[in-house]
Design brief:
Elements (H helix, E strand, L loop, with lengths): L9 H7 L9 H9 L31 E3 L17 E2 L1 E3 L15 E6 L18 E11 L2 E7 L5 E8 L3 E7 L6 E6 L10 E10 L2 E8 L6 E9 L5 E6 L2 E3 L3 E4 L2 E6 L5 E9 L3 H11 L5 H16 L2 E4 L3 H14 L4 E2 L6 E3 L5 E3 L7 E2 L3 H4 L3 H8 L1 H17 L8 E2 L2 E2 L8 H10 L7 H14 L5 H7 L10 H22 L2 H10 L3 H4 E2 L4 E2 L31 H4 L7 H8 L2 H13 L15 E2 L2 E2 L18 H14 L16 H11 L1 E2 L7 E4 L6 E7 L2 E8 L7 E7 L2 E2 L4 E3 L7 E8 L20
Parallel strand pairs: 32-36
Antiparallel strand pairs: 1-3, 2-5, 4-9, 5-6, 6-7, 7-8, 8-17, 9-16, 10-11, 10-15, 11-12, 12-17, 13-14, 13-16, 18-31, 19-22, 20-21, 23-24, 25-26, 27-28, 29-30, 30-35, 31-32, 33-34, 33-36
Helix pairs in contact: 5-19, 7-8, 8-9, 8-10, 9-12, 10-12, 12-13, 16-17
Length: 767
Amino acid sequence: MMDRRGFIQLASFAATQSVLGTTVAHAASERAAEDLTRWVDPIIGTGGHGHTYPGATVPFGAVQFSPDTYNKQWDAASGYHRDDTSIMGFSHTHLSGTGVGDMLDLLLVPRTGAVKLEPGTREHPEEGYRSRFDHKNEHAEPGYYSVKMQSAGGKQVQVELSATGRTGIARIHFPEGEEPHILLDWYHVYGTNNTVTWADLRVDDEQRISGGRGVDKWTPKREIYFATEFSQRPKKIEVFAEGKPVDSRRVSGIRLQVALHFEPGSTVLVKSGISIVSAKNARLNLDTELPGWNFDAVRTAANRKWQAELAKIVVEDADAERKKIFYTGLYHMMCAPTLNDDVNGEYRGLDKQVHTLAKGEHNYSTFSLWDTYRALHPSFTLWQRERVAPMVNCLIRIAEQSIYGFPIWPLQDGETYCMPGYHAASVMAEACVKKVPGIDWQRAYRAMRKRNMDDDYMGLPIYRRVGFIPADREKESVGKVIEYMYCDWATSQVAEHVGAHVDAKIQRKRSQSYKKLFDAKTQFIRARLTNGDWTPNFDPKATGYSPAWRDYCESNAWQSTFGVQHDVKGYMHLFGGREAFARRLDALFTEPFGVTNENVMDMTGYIGQYVHGNEPSHHIAYLYLWAGQPWKTQERVQQILETLYHAAPDGLSGNEDCGQMSAWFCMSAMGLYAVDPASGTYVLNAPLFNRVTVKLGGGKKLVIGAKRSSHSDKYVHGVTLNGKPHDRLWVHHSELVDGAHLLFHLGAEPNKSFAVSETAMPPSLTA
């Protein structure tokens, strides 16, 4: 995103810019950074189609200790939805905004009254172990969650949750006068329970329980293990297998549960470690990270971890709602990828074998790469730089070890194969172009090349031969070509770096396969049949010509036509030039919204046919910069920032998608966006905030300021970089990463002469 050179003196910057008539001092920035968690609201995104969870986790943690209100249906993909009024229990693993459900391992169910082994329904929670609750008795903050639930006798059971990287801890306050128990439901999953393929549960002693299980859901044949301890000795322990009590302290089967009974009025602490390697490692994680019983100390430590990470970006602005959206966005951007190793360095690879990391290395999971290559990972190269190489090295290991091949959407010890393309290539290429140290690029390219040049994967062989994928042979044929083109471009960047110039030439040529799918007559990207003909009965609002499958991936021809990110200049010529391309963009934003042939749940957040609730549209508003009409980018980006993000449970216009939806907001609000991450460049736009300070590491800072007379000023009239005029609306990463001072001069009316020439155009493959 930003430029280097010059270690910016923040005080002098504050002295020279007017921020709505006030001068913001550096000391204020430092004070704000001391308590940035107060701007985070984990409830944002838990309603609507955001699919986030409200519970306790730490940055990039393996444990997400959170309430489960439902475990079926699309809007319960995270296990929780704001509309629900009863809680099943509290499980230790969750996905943040994925739109596909899995996980929900090790459900903790605190109750009073008779033990019930079924959850009951949302309509009649009292028929099972569900507990009613009111959102006014619910509180969420970074690293902590609490709720008061209705007990069987009409009183309240209070549950508090916190977490470390690999463990979770609960503090449960039971009411007087009612018989309490805690049920551990090892059968609970997302979706139908028949996805549990095996389970083992052991009562190690009166206060320690451990076990493991296999789940064959979104992630195929994954394994998960736990070790749990209780702060008090229970009065009685009941073990259940297949819904019946058993007189054994160790059981194997499918449906395993255990109930521990305590005294009325008890306060019981429960702590658990998890591992995808073994119950022994889960115990080691627990003993290492959470050896004591000081709940408040765990909560404080979790908060401090969040404080430290959030303080890497300090925004100064008087608008409280904007700050809440921004810092909640940063919070969600650190809910994935997730830690996926044990304290002894062991992890289970995608070959299902146990491996050991070198000292100081970490393994990660939950890579939603089709989503996050667009804004989340580009942002990490600025404010999470120390994690970029470990994540890239993890992706390389996955490619080398996995029985599934190059990573697509890896989760724990499995591959979900979710979404087209292979965008680990994009993440790797971006790190290469940005000269991230600590990565073996020869090794990386070997992994990338195998998928790019050799693998028989989802239409790649015919794409390599003819430059498109026939719609009568492969579903989402257009969507796949769009993603494969970008992955070709990304792979070519690393190929050039390692000296594979012949490969790079082939890949760059193939990355222009948009020429094979662009229909000059309709001016849309379209699907072709095996014989080369266009598919019949074309409707640009439809997802495909056949009811059997889609031609486009979670989009239609309107959005997909603007899917070329790496060669916008070359692509514009097919439309007839810059002005014609701009007119087509105008039409996208004004065409009546909707899809004609099906209800695509992921397509939400419409502005005309622009669909912000799903990732294929995320770069489109910035394409006006290539068309020489940057003021339209400034108008549309501002519109999206102000209308499609809110500080409310339903404040996200679509799935959070492991941080991508929030990353779009945070990057755009700072005035930067990576339309083409593999180029190492960022396009520039009017910042939402008056001043942003990004800590780049090593004492270096990027300071982004906006000089405006009113908060409504959204048009860029000029830019200075390190005090010198900057006549283009893009920068290279190398201009920012050593420290820089980027100042935007904004006005109320468009400046139609600034950064409009072809020489000011952002780079393209055929520039």
